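User: If only I could read backbone structure tokens as easily as an amino acid sequence. Those tokens are not coordinates but codes from a learned vocabulary of shapes. Could you go through the record with me and say what the backbone is doing? Here is the record:
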Amino acid sequence: MEKETKEKIERTVREILNESDMKEMTEFKVRQLASEGLGIDLSEKSHKAFVRSVVEKFLHEERARDYEKSQVNKEEEEEEEDGDKDCGKGNKEFDDDGDLIICRLSDKRRVTIQEFKGKTLVSIREYYKKDGKELPTSKGISLTDEQWSTFKKNIPAIENAVKKMESRV
């Protein structure tokens, strides 16, 4: 299938999905509407597979957007409840190395954003005090953008696993 044809199909399928009631829409209906709109027979096996991949990608993006919205709402509610001013409030604080401190998890642990060898890293690490300075220990982890994205996407699964474990105790 040509690149131009793929782009037309993807654009059309996304338009249909954006305008549809997702509780009523099926992949078959999407393919049928796209076929009519484009004047292309999309019942061929390779076309079906491509339409399915576009639909799955769209649904994945929608779930991610919904999750992000729910997290923002949840964070706003939690901030209102406990008035935590250390995390996510926009109060920019930098450490001695110039790394942005996002959140202090405890007296000894914090989340920072840092540059290392040209890459941005999210670092969750323990610190110790020496001569009035807070210095990082080897206890911690630094995640690349890609690793951070993967971690973020899996937070719901982690939360569910924690809830299950807590319910067993």
